[in-house]
Amino acid sequence: MRENYHTGITLSRIEWIEVLHDKEVTKEKDLLILQTMYGFEEHQASSSQIGIIISGAIGANASAPINSEVGNWGKRLAKKFPVRFTKRGDGTERKWDIFFDGWTDANSGLFIWKMRNELIEALEEMGQTGEEKYPEEIQIEGLTKLHEGSKKTIVVNTYERNSVARKRCIEHWSPSCSVCDFDFGNVYGELGRGFIHVHHLIPISEVGEAYNVDPINDLRPVCPNCHSMLHRTNPPLEIDELRDQMKKTRA
Asked: Does residue 165 contact residue 50 with C-beta atoms inside 8 Å?
C-alpha cells in the first residue's frame, strides 16, 4: 500500500504542450528527464533511477542533480504559467508536484514520482516520448510484456526502448551485435550507421518496480536476428550461449 502525498493543481494536455514547446521554461535536460521516466513501467521512477540512466552516477550523485533540475524547472514554469505548488510542513514548496504524483515505496524506501496523465498525453501527441520503434519485431509466446509493432512483435521491455538508456549502452559497447558482431553501418553504409537493437540481460519477470537499470552493465547491443533468437527460449538465452550455439552450427 502506498500513500500519495498530494495532488497539486494540474495543467491540461494543451497547456503542457505549450510548456514543452517553450524553450525558456523547458530545457533539453527537462525533456530528457521526462523521456527517461516514460521508459519506466507505468511512467514512474525515483530520481536516483532517472539519474543512473542519464549520467551513470549512483546514490546521492544520481538523485541530487535530478531533484535540483526539476525544482528549477518548476520555478521557471511558475513565472510564466498560473501554477501553485503544495507546501511541506515547514512551509517550503514541492516544486515537482506540478509534474508528478509522489509517494514513498514501502519496499525500497525510494520516493517515487509518477508522471501526470496530462503530461504523458502531451509527450505522446508531440512524438517526444523518446521510445524506439521496431517495425520488424516478431512475437514470442510465454512472456506478458509485449509492445505491438507495425507488422510483427518482439518482446522489448521499456528499458530497451528508452532512447537515453539505449544511447548510453551503444556509446559504451558500439553499435555492433554482441552475439555475431554484425555492424549495419559496415554493410549498408550511412543508411545503417548506428542502427542496432538493445537487449536486456535480466529477464523481464525479474525486474521489479524499484529496479535500477544500468545501461552499461544491464543492456547489450544486438542485431534484430540475434535479438529474436535470444528470445526463442523462456527465460531468454544468454549472449554467450547463443554465440556458442552459432559456433557449433558453423563448425
From this structure: no
